[in-house]
Queue: 3 jobs
Job 1
Amino acid sequence: MSVTEMYEPVLLETDGAETDFDFDFSVFDDTDLVVALIDPDTLEVLDEPELGVDYTVMLNTSTVGGTVVFGTAPADGQLVSIRRDIPTTQGTDIPSGGLFRESQIENALDKMVLLIQQLEERVDRTLLQNPYQTTTELALPVAEADTVLGWNTAGDALENKAPNTEAYLTKASQALAEAGTDDANYMTPLKTKQAIDAQVPDLIAAYKVRVGTGTIVTGELDIDASLYDVVNVTVDDDFELQLPTNGDDGDRIEIRLTQDDSGNHVITLASGFQLASELAEDGIVLSTAASALDKLGLSRVGSVWMIDAFTTDYAEEA
């Protein structure tokens, strides 16, 4: 035979009743075919039927190609894939001084052409470099999770890169604008979400309550306002509450004071505190019972620390 046709694999729809599926490319034997059933949506292989068990092949005698005949019709809604897969071997043996058989030589040449076509079909489905591009080094970098492939700064090799979401959004906006689509209706919500997502860690940090432990040292309680929003203190001695250090206008601190097993420890205030009028009348007097819990609320207005809340006698947790 000669090879005058081009090779193109066959992909045919099934209807649940048809058993015969034609192909129109050259093969030498029925074993030169690969038949598979394909999901039309995902293009994944659903089944690889077996030659001689699930199907047979009838090769045409006067034209190229033939017919794949299933014993049972494939289910409706699938695709039958018929591809050529000729072994890449050279089986023609021409002994020295032997007969020169024209058909034998022609078949050997035909097989080379069929193999070239088979390889060409596979190459056509791969990524190819522009033939006028001078860069020839296209080795892929080692796979790295959550990255994308991109050109390096020099533009002469591929490398792993972190996804550039903003660049994608910009290109999408440009595409929508070229299509005459209102960017505000489509891209603005997405951009807003991206912006919010980027700010989430800072927002969490901004609103997270910083809780720490304070200690009464030599009769004084010192608090660093830059470190804590809530301070838990075990009152194990009479003490003087000092003005918090490193504070800014608007800072608020809650001080939780728990009497130790002895109780009856008292608090005095360092000079410089201002008390709310309802607190100034009675002063700050701690509960005296063992393990009693009292709370002080402090706020800074300008450069002045104010005590604007005092609650006493919290019941001990049961």
Job 2
Amino acid sequence: MNRRQCISLLGGAASWPLAARAQQGERVRRIGVLMNTAADEPESQARLAAFMQGLQELGWAVGRNLRIDYRWSPGDLGRLRKDAAELVGLHPDVILAGVGPTTFVLQQVTRTIPIVMAQAIDPVGNGYIDSLAQPGGNTTGFTQFEYSLAGKWMELLKEVAPGTRRVGVLREPGGAAIAAAIGQWTMIQAVAQSFGAELKLINLQEANEIERGVTAFARSPNGGLIVVVSAASLTHRELIITLAARHRLPTVYPYRVFASHGGLITYGPDIASQYRHAAGYVDRIFKGENPASLPVQAPTKYELVINLKTAKAIGIDMPATLLASADEVID
């Protein structure tokens, strides 16, 4: 799906009032969408376009039987709380929760309106649900990954750059994101110890702080980077990729979009498909199913994407076995 299609799908929500009033007799359902990224973030637009596509395939159309209210709160927990309260105040039938602390803040506001998580991280450990099989309460949906995936990032970094002795881990500090950051850090740390690699935290906060942190890290030799899952990593995607290239640092990323924008290598689930599947859960809740009984599902496939052009530019000779196992090689 290209960007024009994404914008077209999302933009259709703006015209709902007149069209909805024109359709008499059909009940209009209401969805609230809470995102922890900027509204103009292309990756977030693509994810929500996949969600809209899933709804359309199930017979839901904005302006006919559906209304959608969006709230965007990039990296601002205070604003996220305010937006969560606003969405709940609109009395939607279902709320779609994006990445980061969206589920956390929504549950602080409502324990009755169904919440569908599109890409939750450790929902049991974070206390969002009772169990994956029987979530209980008002929340269900889809997880992004298990923490063990973070260990795989460390293994990939050593495979593409065996000489790596120092690893900078870029993570979002503080707030509701810290639990996920700690879980990923713990798994990276366990694998790093087996390789004898030294870890260094680099916080994803303001752009100038990220640049200072990566630049300082790059002054010593034998370094590489791992970017963990967070809303901040998407927000600062272009800067991180630019810094990694400038300092010739082999870097492993969590989302395919990083490789398509020049990142060296990514390993993770197809997040857009999570949003498409989330539409199916919204449809089931509309039709009367209880979120407490809808099992929270994990991704069934992880994708390995390699940017060979970037590898050549920073002097990385990609192992033939890794190239052969990649789902996509960008040349």
Job 3
Amino acid sequence: MDRIAYKPHGYQNIITQHIYELRRGNRFAGMGMGKTVATLTAIDACNLADGTVPTLVLAPDRVARSVWPREALKWKHLEGISVSPIVGSAAARRQALKADANVWTINYNNIPWLIEEYADKKWPFPRIIADESTRLKNFRTRGGGGVRTTALARVAHQYVAWWSNQTGTPVPNGMKDMWGPQWFIDRGQRLGKSYKDFSMRWFHRAYDGYNIVPTDFAQEQIQDQIRDCSVALDPKDWFDVSDPIVRRVDVELPGAARDVYRRMEREMYALLQKDLQGDREVFAVNAAARTSKCLQIANGAVYYEEKATKWHHLHDEKLEALESIAEEANGMPLLVAYQWRSDAERILKAFPKARILDANPKTEDEWNAGKIPMLLAHPASAGHGLNLQDGSNILAVFGQWWDLELYQQIIERIGPVRQLQSGHNRNVWVYLIIARDTMDEDVMVRRETKRSVQDILIENLKRRQQ
């Protein structure tokens, strides 16, 4: 794909500068604020200034596999950055380690494997970027911590000179989550050499005798302790809260699903071509039905009989993207727009605590009370008068569809006006999960230009015939 010019926002420059100037630090920036490209820009600048240093990025699986590599290929100024994802089988991961690259990405689950790979060899990555660094919160120096973080701790200070923690919400479950990630920055210098030291200083036992709760002065003092090594950027300081912030989350169809999609797309355009040649009504029923099939395949499952009750599973790329969005939200409930029942069933299986918006008023009340972590809503059912803004300010559009009015309507359920009217001074975030090089992208054109579906499909047909 053609690279595009990078025009950073002011907050992205702050992230880049902080990484460049401070070798070990926290970069806290809200969801969708472009931390990845800002970080790659800093890595490139450091390589140019000090010589190339192999960099390891720790990230959730989908982010490691596709987001970081794609960002490096997207921007003109990053032509000097080459990313190799350490994914797949053990043999494939070993091959990826041999790639001619300067940035390697790996998901958190494979960290113990990577540490063992270099148990009797020199550790090759003096720079580590912990993307979604809240994954480090369970580390403990005296045992009882997570397997991944325990393995990572073996190299974190002995062999790693650069360390960057990055997340949108550093303490989703309270200040008790701050110690683990911070240990990887300074080995306990600021918050205590062990979690026990940390908890004894700033927490006390809850009434149940098991959990801990912060003291009245904990948050202020903990923030003071890490202020010199951290930068925190609040979206409200950079975006107009009166407009939704729309972010596109791309996924790639796996090979087998791509083959199914291409076959269906060819059939659709063949029918469309027949309509045009026969001077019949353009966009006949059969062609229209195939646009639905294409969009279903993009989502990961396709109905295979006329009654649309039986469907075939194809891939989970969008489910993984939704998981990444939910993880970055870190505790904030998530409203999810779905299009087909097959999508809803798959989401409910992947997220057992999710609920579907139904006609029961209690569902809306529980959502607005923060009791439902993920609420699935079909745009056609989220009609006027439905108030969902107290429950969240984040919408993920899982399934794309042509109807512009329904799209705008579901955004309005948690929209900026409703947020402000309810006393919430916070941005509204809309995440569009898009399967690249599919009809999802045509739907995007429809929304942005308000052109008819027929015009968009005919234009695509003519382009394929050239």
